[in-house]
């Protein structure tokens, strides 16, 4: 893990493309050459997706959310809470263009792969903390993404249960509780417990607005994020907050789908607008990457690790 501090520091993004940022990513070549994780998530069908350490979450709401997660470290209520962001690949249910993309997987395969990726983090985090609560946030629809696979994952109870049991086979569902802006999923077994708190963060006032690109500004999205966390904090301070967002640009790239554990962000710069989280240089955030490299060092678990 000594190489992680240097990973991505020499990455230079390409000049802005003539398409929306959430439609293209420029970090693929760097990750292909330098990735430290080199893991694979496999569905029951045999469908595979890469699991990598990302260096460029773009400049849309995913980049904004990673910046929001970084900012939590300065708030007393979140002292000691591990945070991180994972980009999830699109699947064929994501939208009309994705439906015709032969390199993408069906929704069921994507959910199983996502369960394995999340489980790899849960396994490490649940062994380090007594009675941990781990928050999973997802995003709703936006332009080009009518059915966000991250929202589908946190809404799919079977996938959440699978992630918990992949993390620790002795865990079984002990109950669910709906809060104002989140749902608690409690698991217990063999004298250990795990609680997953799930919530979907909207990017606009309505789904129609989101699909039309009439988004909230970044102040509103940050406020919505804190509002979603408030009822969870009232129950217990979480051990970790992991945010999930879809890398919709993978629809346009005919390569094997990939999950990216993001390591740095410049925040929100969409359509020539600098949001509240915009920065000129990358801000580094390696907490979750270290968790996945810890899983790699163990060499077993929900993911398959490739030779470097």
UniProtKB/TrEMBL annotation:
InterPro entries: Peptidase_C15-like_sf. Gene3D superfamilies: Peptidase C15, pyroglutamyl peptidase I-like (3.40.630.20). This is Uncharacterized protein.
